[in-house]
Amino acid sequence: MTRLYPLKFHPIYKTKIWGNERLRNVLHKDVGDLKKTGESWEISGWPEDVSVVKNGFLAGNNLQELIEIYMGDLTGDSIFEKFGIEFPILVKFIDADDILSVQVHPDDALAKKRHNAYGKAEMWYVMQCEPGAEIIVGFNRDVSREEYMEHLRRKTLREILNSEKTAPGDVYYLPPGRIHAIGAGVLVAEISQTSDITYRIYDWDRVDANGKGRELHTDLALDAIDYKALPQYKMPYNDRLNETVNLVGSEHFTTNLLHFDRPLEKDYFELDSFVIYMGLEGEASIEHENGTETIRKGETLLLPAVLKDVRLVPAGETRLLEIYIG
User: For residue range 134-145, what is the model confidence (pLDDT) as tens digits?
Assistant: First the structure.
C-alpha cells in the first residue's frame, strides 16, 4: 500500500451572524468573498462536512474515503475498531465578534438515546482576544433546576452564569453538561468530539432581518445541564519552552501544548492514534520517514497513526497544539 504522509485539508468555512474577519486577517485564511466568517472547520468527519485532502498525491480524497482504504494505519487500530470510518475528533478555529448563544451539549448516553449519535466534550484554547473579553463557562454557584428555569423565564440567566475575563493562552475544558458561551472579541482553537448536537439555551434576544430569533432548545437542555458550580473553570498549566505540556486529558481526547524554538523529537511508538497539529504561532517543518511537511500559524495537519517517529524543526519560536486519543 502507498506510504502515508502528514495530511492537510481544505478548511470548511461557516458564515455566522457573530463572525468577523480574524480568520482572514489573523490566521491568513483564504475565505474569499465570505463575510462574517465565524468558523473554519479544519478536520471534520461530520457526514455533511467531510474534510477533503489538499496536499500530496491523496489530494481530492475525503477523510472517510482514506479511512476506508488505510483503516488503522490512518486512525490507529483501536480507534478504527471503535469508530470505523467516522473520524472521532472535530477541530475548528472560531472567531466571535459578538457573544455566542449560551448552550450545552449532551453526554454520549443522552445523545445516543435521543439522536443515535455521540455527545460532545470540547475544549477551547484562546489564541487572541480584545481587552476585557469574557468567556462564559458554568455557573457562579450551585443552582437547582427550578431556580435555573426561573432565571431563564425572567431573562436574568446572566446573574447565575460564571463570566470571567480571558486572555491569550487560556484553556477551558467543557465536558458534556457544562453550560458555556464564547464572548465577543475572542479567537479560539476548538477541539471536540465529532458531534453537532448543541442545545441552544439563550441567544440574548437577538433577531434576524425578519425579526425572527434562532431556534432554542430549552426543554431538551434541562436533562443535559450540570447545575453544580466549580471553584475554577480555567485549566491550570505552566507553559515550558521545548517541552510537551499537557492541557487537557480526557477519555475523548488529549491535548498538549508544544512551545519550542529548537528541534523536538516526537516518539509515538506507544500511541495507537493519529495525531493532529494545530498551528498557533510561528512555523515548523515536520520531518518524517516519507519526507517533510510544513505547518504555519492558522494551519492544521493530520499525522497518520502509522508515522511513529517525527522531528519538528521550528523557524523561530513556534506554538502548536498536539491532539490525539490515548
Answer: 999 999 999 999
8 A C-beta contact, residue 234 and residue 125: no
Residue found by looking up cell 458534556 in the block: 176
Joined together, the cell numbers standing for residue 215 give: 431556534
Which set of grid coordinates corresponds to residue 81?
Answer: 475498531
**Do 124 and 249 sit in the same domain of this protein?**
no
Domain for residue 74, yes or no? yes
Judge whether 94 and 298 are in contact, CB under 8 Å.
no
Sequence-distant (≥ 6) Cβ neighbours of residue 19 within 8 angstroms: 35, 36, 37, 38, 39, 95, 96, 97
Instruction: Write out the residue range of the structural domain in which residue 311 sits.
Output: 243-324
Between the CA of residue 274 and those of 51, 132, 232, 294, what are the distances in Å? 15, 37, 31, 17
**Quick check: is 214 catalytic?**
no
Percent of the chain whose predicted confidence (pLDDT) is above 90: 92
Please check whether residues 285 and 141 belong to one and the same domain: no
Residues 126 and 156 in one domain: yes
Q: Give me the residues of the chain with pLDDT under 50, please.
A: none
Q: What is the mean pLDDT of the chain?
A: 95
Whether residues 128 and 249 share a domain: the answer is no
Q: How many domains does the chain fold into?
A: 2
Catalytic residue among 154, 200, 240, 296: 200
What's the pLDDT at 288? Answer: 94
Same domain, 171 and 200: yes
